[in-house]
Amino acid sequence: MDIKEVLKISFDYNKIIQKTTQIIIIIAFAIIIYYLISFIIRRIFSLSFKKFRIRYHDLMRKRQKTMEKIILSLWRYFVYFVTFLISLSVVGINIQTILAGAGILGVVIGVGSQNLMKDFLEGFFNIFENNLSVSDYVVIDTVEGNIIDIGLRTLKIKSYTGEVHIIPNSKIGHIINYSLDDGKALVDILVDYEVDLDNALETIRATLIKIKPKNNNILSEPIIQGVNKLKEIGYEIRIICITVRETHWSVQRFMRGELMKAFKENQINIGINQIIIKEHISI
Q: Using the 8-state DSSP alphabet, how is residue 170 labeled?
């Protein structure tokens, strides 16, 4: 190997090191810019949110988190794309040719990734129509839990027992959202047929008067709707009240507990299956 070949290899090696260093600097600069702009975006949303702290605190907090995550997601993809193009330019690839062919490339990608575009569109529609927000408690098909993240492609739901379900936006079907409006607690209590109806109703009324001040999640006075069903082991009395959103489950548990205490104090039996064994005495 002569001196010219050695110099050529050395030159190429130095060029590779130079290009690699430039790309590392570009990536580092992109990371700094990404986190700086992300911090500014979060700060802007935080400051604008303070105006709504008094009356619309819960609703605006959810909308703020949702829009913040969407904008940060768009910003992240934009940084990835621009950093990739600049890195190609440093290597020596003509990015103008790539951008010029973006239209044809976009058509090809669009035909081959219809589900991807559907994910994007479904995600935008659900967000801007206020169907879903971060931290909402929802049931989507057979998945139930709190929404922890909404992205351009997927939705993440954390169930009560800790599992995280990742659902593509295009696969979102029937939605039950418990967080869009105030809840409604519905309690059915079964009373033994041997108990006088008027006595049972009076005990329930006296208990309900005391229940509301004990629980801040109850928004309206609990109402007795009357006898709802006649069952084999007793008659069912239905009680209903308006609750703070996402709290009707806990309110129902609280009301059942208070009613059970009142029934025990007033010696009112609930309807239960009973097996009575009579001893037969033969003479």
A: G
* Pairing outcome for strands 234-243 and 223-231: antiparallel
The conformational region for residue 130 under phi > 0 = left, psi -120 to 50 = alpha, else beta, is left
pLDDT at 103: 57
Distance CA 207, CA 141 (A): 38
CATH code of the domain containing 224: 3.30.70.100
Alpha-carbon distance of 171 to 154, in angstroms, equals 9
Nearest to 172 by CA among 233, 125, 232: 125
Q: Is residue 276 part of a domain?
A: no
Please state which of the ranges 11-25, 52-66, 201-215 shows the lowest mean pLDDT: 52-66
Domain that holds residue 233: 183-265
Q: Which residues pair with 238 in a beta bridge?
A: 188, 226
Which candidate, 257, 245, 252, places its Cα nearest to that of 183? 245
> Mind listing the pLDDT tens digit for each residue in 101-155?
555 555 545 544 566 667 677 777 776 767 788 888 888 888 889 888 887 778 8
**Helices 248-265 & 197-214 angle (0-180, nearest 10):** 130
User: What is the per-residue pLDDT across 74-104, written as a single tens digit (0 to 9) for each?
Assistant: 788 788 888 888 888 877 777 666 656 555 5
- Length reported for the chain: 283
The span from the CA of 235 to the CA of 204, in Å, is: 14
pLDDT value, residue 252: 92
How far is it, in rounded angstroms, from Cα 226 to Cα 239?
8
User: Across the chain, where does the E strand assignment appear?
Assistant: 137-140, 143-150, 154-158, 164-168, 175-177, 183-191, 223-231, 234-243
Mean pLDDT in the chain? 78
Rounded distance between C-alpha atoms, residue 144 and residue 156, angstroms? 11
Q: Are residues 200 and 151 in the same domain?
A: no
